[in-house]
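Record type: monomer structure entry
Structure origin: computed from sequence
Chain ID: A
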Amino acid sequence: MRDVVRRLDAATPADRDRAVDALRALAILAVVLGHWLVTALVANSGTLRGSSPLQYLPGLTPVSWVFQTLAVFFLVGGLVGARGHAAARARGTTYGQWLGARVARLSRPAAVLLAVWTVAICAMLAAGADPVTVYTLGKRVLSPLWFLLVFAGLTAATPLVARLHPLWPLAVVLVVDLIRFGLHGPGRLGEVNVTAGWLVPYCLGAAWARGRLQSRVTGWVLLLGGGAGAIGLVLRAGYPASMVGVPGEAVSNLDPPNLVTVAFGLAQCGAALLLLGTLRRVLARPVLWAGVALVNLAAMTIFLWHQTAMMAVTAVGLLAGEPLPGLHTVPSTMTWVLARLAWLPAFAFALLLCLAAFHTYEQGRRRDLKRQGRLVRRRVPAPSKTARHV
């Protein structure tokens, strides 16, 4: 393991900003852990239905504040997208070539997920599985794909939005919310916010790529201003306090994103900017950097298959013959929460199996790793016989 860590550290260019990779890794892992904590599958008479502990235990609402980190991912996406497009233009790469390479990294693992689950759903229906159960499982597997569609759309629009001020999409979200909630306008108008809401942190990332957002004052303004705005909207305007959708609530802050989600995302972006210095110092340690690098190399596989991993453990648990606490029972007590925490290692092990099976489809990342490996072999002396054996 020491040799692997040393090779990954040596393969990393000296000018690479490791803190950016850390923000991406933390954002993805937080979403994964958040889904595992607040997503419940309740078994009742052979049927699985979706539920959430947030529906029964409102005191757990702060959990959604910690683990709903999509704004940070879009912030990093805007930074990387703007920098990558500028570098591609400087090399003479066409827009189509650049976009094709970017989208391929998203579409390949997503296509595999769709193929596998199409076969699985057809098999379940052919075997006489309850349609409600099939719908419940399919919905949770496919729900992350909305994120990829939005992210791919914003990536394609990078040349157009790279210099767009974040206040413009923020104003769109404000107007849409005023019409929806203040004037009782059509609810479908909120679909505009699916793009406008996530365009705010994406534009912040593009501004970061242009050399903006360098001052710690900017980070504090985003953190305090966004946080105060989100709190004020929850307390004074009647928005839900949860940053994720809760079954039974008439309004979701996340589907579609609204003004509270955008304000909260600005606060998250400010916190991320303030953490950059600390992350850069910490990630100078090769062991910690190796962990961040490995998560980034498998980021799409982790994101796409984490729900499948949880549901696989849930399905295997049904073989026990009776509902297992924290896995099949109603998430209405703290006992369920403690039991769910005990199941997290099983979810993680199942996800590792998914990574072993499907990580190879992140071909772009895999080729990068191979190139890094060749570079490292030129730089790093071969390990001793004992080290190779270990």
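Annotation 1: DSSP finds 18 helices and two strands in the chain.
Annotation 2: The first helix runs from residue 2 to 11.
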